[in-house]
Amino acid sequence: MAASPAQRRRWEREQARLRASVVEEDTEEWQKDPRFTGLERVGGVDLSYIKGDESRACASLVVLSYPALEVLYQDCRMVAVSAPYVAGFLAFREVPVLVEAVQRLQQEEPQLQPQVLLVDGNGLLHPRGFGTACHLGVLTDLPCVGVAKNLLQVDGVVRDELHREQVRSLQSSGEAFPLTGASGKVLGMVLRSYNNSSKPLYVSVGHRVSLDTAVRLVRACCRFRVPEPIRQADIRSREYLRKLPCAPLEVPGAVPASPESKKEAEPED
Q1: pLDDT for 88-105, tens place per residue?
Q2: What's the CA gap between 249 and 150, in Å, rounded?
Q3: At what angle do helices 5-19 and 132-140 cross, to 10 degrees?
Q4: Where are the alpha helices (DSSP H) in the chain?
Q5: pLDDT tens, position by position, 224-259
Q6: Sign of CA dihedral 15, 21, 25, 30
């Protein structure tokens, strides 16, 4: 199923309307502390799709302690995905079910609400400056950070030889360089998050966080290439699909993470 031109126009208008609410600055006291004093809970979200069925997915929300990065909460359930996939409009496909997951957490375990969400996707690094991390942040009013594994080529930013040379110049974990568009605006940062992986991450502002703080937070949450909150959400959603390949769309609510579920293998990069 493809989106009609009229639907795309509606989506563009909605993105423009919500984009006006994005806050590109730090709003929390813990963000202003070099050691993130006061930060105790970091969330991560992910959707994993059933092979051959793009209409159903497992939506996963996890909350990890900080700085220990231990799983405090997980919510994995099957959801119906009705909007078609259209490049630049992924949020309309995935954000509604992620907002519902955040709302369930706020109602059922409010003391475990994350103080920030890491999103597998882009924030301001987007053709209209409003990627999934911005969309989720505005609708939940939670600080959000976009963490993408691949470069979205917008505003003149391209994966050319100069870009590849800059990526190769990142020699050790934590090194980064800015992504500056043709407009002169810094859209995000390219981060080498893990010494054993030469593949960078593309970090951008989602909502209620500065780019500098976003990069520092992603660095602090990486045990491997992908920051732990997103990695754990991905692991759990994929495991859910493996165990329940024919899971119904209505499943029991969130359950505390078991000690056994924390023993995960290192991912491949």
Answers
A1: 999 999 999 999 999 999
A2: 30
A3: 60
A4: 5-19, 91-108, 132-140, 161-168, 211-220, 228-243
A5: 999 999 999 999 999 999 987 554 554 434 444 433
A6: negative
